[in-house]
């Protein structure tokens, strides 16, 4: 038998994690086991486990197993950025992200020239063909408001343009899953209809829309709740107030303790519930790199004390790692592990129709995170492949 065949046989062997506390996303199994290769083959109580030929058994001694994380909003990390448009580097970046528990990723762009965005679409498409962790694209801008531009360069901001957007979607291989835009533009209603027709989630963000304007919008998702949007005020609910008042809206939350005060994270949790919050990192290329000078969309960024800021002092994305967001959401809100799993995996899979992701069930992809009792990430399996630092 040649080496290629040996590798094939080895890859088809099943891994079994047993004596684990398993949170499937639907139930908790106190002393459980899970058998998988690229996909999950069996799951249940350890007492019911029956050995099969080729099982590679790992005794977890009571450690915690949860579904792999789904980050639907992250620009980059580890010195790379999705806007760079380099397929090999984007794939390399995503491999690094797996080490923080991310097993499904939406490569996120930002407001830039038409040419740069088109280049990013092509690059991400090629990277996704190489790396199955990339499950889609989040187009953030350029169809936003200059009033709440945040770290988005104002010179490239424009009203929604269906023809332009359709071209980018086509260049990406129809991979755009969510688009951040400002609903107050005159062209936004027709743009929303186009998105819904093409199964793209319209997400309000970097927007100065009033509650009244939001009532006429078809946005079903809010980009980084509280940040870069018309805020909640007693005479004008704004974008944030609209998000709280509408049950159907999913809200992204950056749980790093800097973008949102922990008590405001708790308020969002209390008002929306775990079923409508999605943890994101909104990370940039400086994540995982030493503190100091970095870059975002051609703008100088200074990273210090786990915060990334423009020279103006504005926050510019984050250097948050997803396993820290997972731990922080429990710390900030007092929620259970079950709820944290909902906010880090289940909701994203449901909203974006990622049918093979989000929960640990037979037939689904073997995207699995293992934590110790202190909620420290020990290892990650992406499509059954072990990643361990």
UniProtKB/TrEMBL annotation:
Keyword Cell wall biogenesis/degradation: no
Pfam families: Amidohydro_1 (PF01979)
Membrane-spanning parts: none
Molecular function (Gene Ontology), one example: metal ion binding
Annotated binding of substrate, by residue: 151, 227-228, 235, 259, 315-317
Amidohydrolase-related domain span: 64-375
Residues at which Zn(2+) binds: 140, 206, 224
Active site: 282
Cofactor: a divalent metal cation
InterPro entries: Amidohydro-rel (IPR006680), GlcNAc_6-P_deAcase (IPR003764), Metal-dep_hydrolase_composite (IPR011059), Metal_Hydrolase (IPR032466)
Alphabetical list of SUPFAM superfamilies matching this protein: Composite domain of metallo-dependent hydrolases (SSF51338), Metallo-dependent hydrolases (SSF51556)
Keywords associated with the record: Carbohydrate metabolism, Hydrolase, Metal-binding
Catalytic reaction list: N-acetyl-D-glucosamine 6-phosphate + H2O = D-glucosamine 6-phosphate + acetate
Cofactor note: Binds 1 divalent metal cation per subunit.
Coiled coil: none
BP GO terms, sorted: N-acetylglucosamine catabolic process
Record keyword Cytoplasm present: no
This enzyme's EC code(s): 3.5.1.25
UniProt superkingdom: Bacteria
Pathway membership: Amino-sugar metabolism; N-acetylneuraminate degradation; D-fructose 6-phosphate from N-acetylneuraminate: step 4/5
Family: Belongs to the metallo-dependent hydrolases superfamily. NagA family.
Protein name: N-acetylglucosamine-6-phosphate deacetylase
Organism: Ligilactobacillus ceti DSM 22408
């Amino acid at each position: 038998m040649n080496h290629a065949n040996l590798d094939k046989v080895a890859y088809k062997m099943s891994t079994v994690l047993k004596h684990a506390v398993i949170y499937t996303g639907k139930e908790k199994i106190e002393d459980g086991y899970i058998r998988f290769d690229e996909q999950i083959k069996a799951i249940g109580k350890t007492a019911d486990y029956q050995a099969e030929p080729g099982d590679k058994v790992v005794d977890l001694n009571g450690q915690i197993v949860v579904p792999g994380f789904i980050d639907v909003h992250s620009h980059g990390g580890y010195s790379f950025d999705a806007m760079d448009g380099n397929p090999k580097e984007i794939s390399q970046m995503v491999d690094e992200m797996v080490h923080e528990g991310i097993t499904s990723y939406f490569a996120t762009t930002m407001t830039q020239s038409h040419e740069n965005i088109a280049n990013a679409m092509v690059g991400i498409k090629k990277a996704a063909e190489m790396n199955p962790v990339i499950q889609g694209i989040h187009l953030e801008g350029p169809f936003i408001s200059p009033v709440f531009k945040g770290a988005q360069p104002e010179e490239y901001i424009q009203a929604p343009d269906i023809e332009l957007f359709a071209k980018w979607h086509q260049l990406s291989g129809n991979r755009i899953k969510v688009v951040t835009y400002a609903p107050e533009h005159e062209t936004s209603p027709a743009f929303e209809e186009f998105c819904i027709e093409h199964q793209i989630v319209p997400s309000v963000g970097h927007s100065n829309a009033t509650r009244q304007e939001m009532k006429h919008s078809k946005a079903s998702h809010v980009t980084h709740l509280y940040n870069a949007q018309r805020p909640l005020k007693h005479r004008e609910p704004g974008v944030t107030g609209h998000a709280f008042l509408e049950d159907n809206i999913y809200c992204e939350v950056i749980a790093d303790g800097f973008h949102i005060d922990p008590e405001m994270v708790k308020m969002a949790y209390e008002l929306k519930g775990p079923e409508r919050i999605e943890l994101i990192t909104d990370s940039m290329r400086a994540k995982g790199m030493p503190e100091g000078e970095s870059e975002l969309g051609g703008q100088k960024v200074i990273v210090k004390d786990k915060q990334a800021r423009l020279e103006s002092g504005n926050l510019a994305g984050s250097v948050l790692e997803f396993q820290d967001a997972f731990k922080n959401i429990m710390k900030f809100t007092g929620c259970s592990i079950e709820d944290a799993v909902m906010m880090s995996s289940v909701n994203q899979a449901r909203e974006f129709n990622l049918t093979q992701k989000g929960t640990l069930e037979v037939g689904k992809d073997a995207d699995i995170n293992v934590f110790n009792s202190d909620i420290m990430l020990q290892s990650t399996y992406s499509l059954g492949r072990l990643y361990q630092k």
